[in-house]
Structures are given as C-alpha cells and as structure tokens.
Amino acid sequence: MDSFQFSRPTTVDHAVQLGATSATAQQSAEVRFVAGGTTLIDLMKLNVERPKQVVDINALPLSMIEATPNGGLIIGALARNSDVAQHPLVQRNYPVLSQALLSGASPQLRNMATTGGNLLQRTRCVYFRDTAHACNKREPGTGCSAIDGHNRMLAILGTSKDCIATNPSDQNVALTALEATIQVQGTKGKRSIPIQDFYLLPGSTPERETVLEPGDVVLSVTLPPPAAGARSHYLKLRDRAAYEFALTSAAVVLKVNGSRIEHVRIALGGVGTRPWRSVEAERVLQGHTADAATFRRAAEEALKDARPASENGFKVELAKRCIVRALTMSMKTA
Ligand SMILES: Cc1cc2nc3c(=O)[nH]c(=O)nc-3n(C[C@H](O)[C@H](O)[C@H](O)COP(=O)(O)OP(=O)(O)OC[C@H]3O[C@@H](n4cnc5c(N)ncnc54)[C@H](O)[C@@H]3O)c2cc1C
Ligand code: SF4
C-alpha cells in the first residue's frame, strides 16, 4: 500500500473541501473518503485504489435513521448496515431492505459497513481486483480480461464491449425497488439524485460508475412512504448460503387487490452492471392477475435483452426463476 495523508473533518463543508482537491471522484481518485473501510481498505491493500489522501468521515453527524414528516424514512450515510437492518421502522415498513442487508457479507462486516459505503462499493470482478490483469475499469484502454476469461459471476444486462462487471450490492437492489433518493453535498451545494439516475452504465467509460463529482459527500438516502397494503421480498440466489455475493437476486414490492396487481416494483441484483430496475417486467404485471403465468411472462420480459458471456449463460434462466419465486414469496408474507 502506498503512503497517504490522513484527515478527520468534523463538518461536511470541510469534507467537501478536502474531497474537491481530487481530479476525479471515480476510479483513480487522489482523495478518498473512508467510512467503514470494508471496501476501500481492501482495495488499497491490493493497490487497486491508491489515494494520496484518505478523509475519515466517521466524525460527521450522518448516522440517523428517522421517519420523515411525509411518512417516509431518512437513513444517514454513516448508518451501519446492521443498525439499518434491525431498525423497527425498516423491519415494519421496508422489510425488503432489511432482508437484503441481512443477506449480505457477515455480521462483523455489517457492523462496520455503512449505507453510503455500500452505495459506492466496487465490483468484485477478479480482474479488477488483481493488478496483474488488464482491466478497463481500473486502467482505461487496457482491455477487459473478463470477456474471454472467468466471467461466471459477471453481468448479463447493461454490459458493453469494454466491461461486463456487476454491481455487487444487495442493499442497492432493495433501494432501487423502493425508489430511494440519494442526498449529496458538493462544491455547488446540496442536491438529491433518484437512485435510478445515480449509477452509470459502463459503455466505453467503465471507470465512471456514478454521477458523483470531486468533493461530493453522500449525506443520506430517503425512502418514500411505503405503498399502503404493499408487501415486499428480497430473494438472493448464490453458491453458498452465507458470506457470498449474489449470482442473481430480486427485490419486489407488490400490492395485490383481489387477484389484480395494483402496484409493483422489481429490481434485480447479480445480473446487471448497475442495480437493475425492470420497468419492462413491471409493465407486464401492472393491472394484471397475480398468478404464475403472469409472473413468468414478466420474468421473460425482464431478461429479454440479456447478453451472457461464455460462462454465465445459466444466469438468464436463474434470474427468471428468481423473479417468479420472489413475486410468489411476497404474496405469502404477512
Ligand atoms: C468479505 C466481504 C464480503 C461481502 N459480501 C457482501 C455481500 O454479500 N453483499 C453486499 O452487498 N456487500 C458485500 N460486501 C461489501 C460490503 O457491503 C461493502 O464493503 C460495504 O457496504 C462498504 O461500506 P463501507 O462503509 O465499509 O465503505 P468504505 O470502504 O468506507 O467506502 C467504500 C467507498 O465509498 C466511498 N464512500 C463511503 N462513504 C461515503 C460518503 N458518505 N460519501 C461519499 N463517498 C463515500 C469511499 O470513498 C469508498 O470509495 C462484502 C465485503 C467483504 C469484504
Ligand atoms: S469486466 Fe470490467 S471490471 Fe472486469 S476486467 Fe472487464 S473491464 Fe475490468
């Protein structure tokens, strides 16, 4: 690991000022914020991240988990994943988020990992994490070792000829189905970004993963009030039952009146280059009968643009079954 300067600001303004001295907030940033450190420190030890300055943001007042006046929820960027997962308001109103968080990593990691850090965790593509291999995301223009290499875990939706890496987060899939908004403070003040607009597709610039600019500090995530009468479920399919990233996952929010679907949101994990909202599947479901045939039609629609690589073709059918199963399970929740 290279040597670096270390600072611990006590105000968001100061953190923004320190972050703004970096030329980029994306790969190769010279300044990095550290929260729980469970992504950043690993990548620094691997020489994948080589910031000249590390800014510890843990002294900032961003740990809240509170109801908002409109009946929604605000989660501070420094709220730990375990605190969010166990919070009564989350368990009661947004069980899909609690389930997603509890399906990730290990209890020890969740005690450290934060909401903001989880939003910005990096891909687990093995070539990204190993500097001996070419990787367009780590070093633009060097090539993608995964496309003709080991790509079993990688994406089938939203890929490009330059990168097929997945966004590995469980939290972000649930936040996408819940239509979260992310509050950010940067050099030009505060702004709110719908999660749907927060992540970028890789295209020809896979090193750019989000819309964040130098100095931007994630302050919080807000959730709209839960849809009255809606149920939700997170289903994660993986190689082993714990401590493993998703091969595919589905977060669903579903409200059924009689047998008619009145409200539905679907997001997928483990298959997309960003947390993957499927408006196509939602369109098939909205207003139709909640039964196995409709669920399967929605799943087919969600995966119709899938472009598998050499080792991950199995994800297409697995993701379809995951969607059908998650929808079915959500009908059974209390
Ligand atoms: C062994 C292992 C297994 C794991 N398994 C899973 C899993 O199954 N599912 C899953 O979803 N995740 C998993 N994870 C990933 C884990 O969830 C993330 O590492 C964690 O959420 C990152 O949060 P953090 O606070 O530690 O981030 P940090 O490492 O502190 O930061 C991560 C990135 O976010 C930036 N950042 C952090 N906070 C802010 C902020 N407020 N504003 C701007 N930038 C910020 C940092 O600069 C850094 O670039 C696993 C991790 C490990 C090590
Ligand atoms: S898939 Fe993306 S992250 Fe993985 S080697 Fe290719 S460019 Fe790098």
Low-confidence stretches are: none
**Overall average pLDDT:** 97
Shape: globular
How would a crystallographer describe the biggest sheet?
5 strands, antiparallel
Give the DSSP E fraction (strand runs of 2 or more residues): 15-25%
Biggest sheet, strands in spatial order? 4-5-8-6-7
Order of helices and strands: EHEHEEEHHHHHHEEHEEEEEHHH
Describe this structure in words.
The structure is a single chain. The protein has 334 residues and is of the alpha+beta class. Helix content is 28%, strand content 20%. It has helices at residues 12-19, 40-45, 81-86, 88-93, 95-102, 107-112, 115-119, 171-177, 195-198, 279-285, 292-302, 314-332; strands spanning 5-7, 31-34, 53-56, 65-67, 73-76, 181-186, 189-194, 217-223, 231-237, 248-257, 260-269, 276-277. The strands form three sheets. A five-stranded antiparallel β-sheet has the order 4-5-8-6-7. It has a four-stranded antiparallel β-sheet with strand order 9-10-11-12. A hairpin with a 2-residue loop joins strand 6 and strand 7 (189-194). The mean pLDDT is 97. The protein binds flavin-adenine dinucleotide and iron/sulfur cluster. Residues 32-40, 42, 57, 77, 104-105, 109, 112-114, 116-118, 120-121, 168-171, 217-218, 245 line the site of flavin-adenine dinucleotide.
